[in-house]
Amino acid sequence: MSLSLHIEDLALSRGGRRLFSGLGLRMEPGQACALTGANGSGKTSLLRAVAGLCAVDSGRIAFGGADPASARASSLHLLGHLDGLKASRTAGEELAFWTGWQGGTPSAMAAAVRRLDLHRLLDLEVRRLSAGQRRRLALARLLSAPRPLWLLDEPLSPLDGRWRAEALEIMAGHLSSGGLILAAVHDPLPLAALALEITA
Amino acid sequence: MSAALQLLKREMAIAWGRGGGLLVTSGFFAGATLLLPLASGPEPERLAQIAPGAAWTVLALSALLGLERLFERDFEDGALDLMAHAGLALEFTCALKCLGHWLATGAPLALLAPVAAIALGASPTLAPLLFACALAGGLAFAFTGGIGAALSLGARRGGLLTAVIVLPLFVPPVIFGGGALDAFTAGLPWRAGVALLGAYAAAAVALGPLAMAAACRNALS
After folding, report:
1. How far is residue A154 from each of residues A24, A48, A102, A187, B88, measured CA to CA in Å?
2. Which ipTM was obtained for this model?
3. Would the pLDDT of A73 be above 70?
4. Which is nearest to B213 in space by CA: B162, B160, B147?
5. pTM for this model (two decimals)
6. CB-count exposure of residue A119 (10 Å: 0-12, 13-18, 19+)
7. A11 in contact with chain B, both atoms CB, cutoff 8 A
8. How far is residue A151's CA from residue A19's CA, in Å, rounded to a whole number?
9. For residues A9 and A17, what is the distance between their CA atoms, to the nearest angstrom?
């Protein structure tokens, strides 16, 4: 479960426009990093580049000694604005599918459902859920299949006060078990976190 | 392997689910075949002559229906992101999505095609051949159609674009299958057409996923 993330001299462009260059970051197990920057500065693109979804102009993204392809396949969770939940299917079907897809276990899924209080929502179609409920369902996906590196894009934004606190507790628990969290946020993350501001 | 099975089940459930699926596809197929006698006149001899070709052409057009949604929804809701960095190769994932699409809509249409052809006056002896052609052709339509669906990801009015990309790829299987049906009706050797149709379907199943995965990665990056 231990993994580290090293980013060296990274440069990234979107649509022909250079977002940033010379970006570096070293994260060791148990560390969180709060990624800040203006709208459009490239926070989401950086997360997607770490997940291997978009190409980088130059620089290096390494996962300790692990092979990047297999680390991306089995050691990281990506939670973005788009949560991958199909509107026409029930919350329970979707959670079970993603749990299986990401190599989780039914018992971990049951624990996640309890932790995020999703029992009453599982029979509902995803389209009936509020933004905050959807986010809780997406967080349950992270807990159902334990993976060391969490890439989170505005993880707290749709959640209310109670669930913000709970989500932060979940994140703290992940860190204390040796996980890593790289989170794009607007407000500072109230966890012992590294901070990286993206500037052009 | 269990992830692959679950994906196949999910794809079929989505294809069967609301807003489309089998009923709409079969309804379109039945409706479009029904238009034919209205347009070309009700004389039984003429209808019997065009029946196999009509059922075959409408089958190809029906295969276009669900294609738009094959990758588009997963692209829009972020599921494709999660599928692209998974243990299962994206090529295999694309193949499973097409297979699910074919099992949910193409294979049932293959049952309907002989019924429609016979209703238009084709000889019942044609039914097994038409069924076999529709099965193989449906597979070719699904796997070449997937290429068009993946290439038009992110485009506005992707459905139309998909059809424009895909229809030229449908030409060979339509010719091979139509030729075999024609030859069979005329009492001529027909096996070559079926063999070519099968070969085209096999090539589509083998090569299509490579193109789909490349197009998906391009759309995501």
Report:
1. 21, 14, 22, 9, 27
2. 0.90
3. yes
4. B147
5. 0.91
6. exposed
7. no
8. 19
9. 17
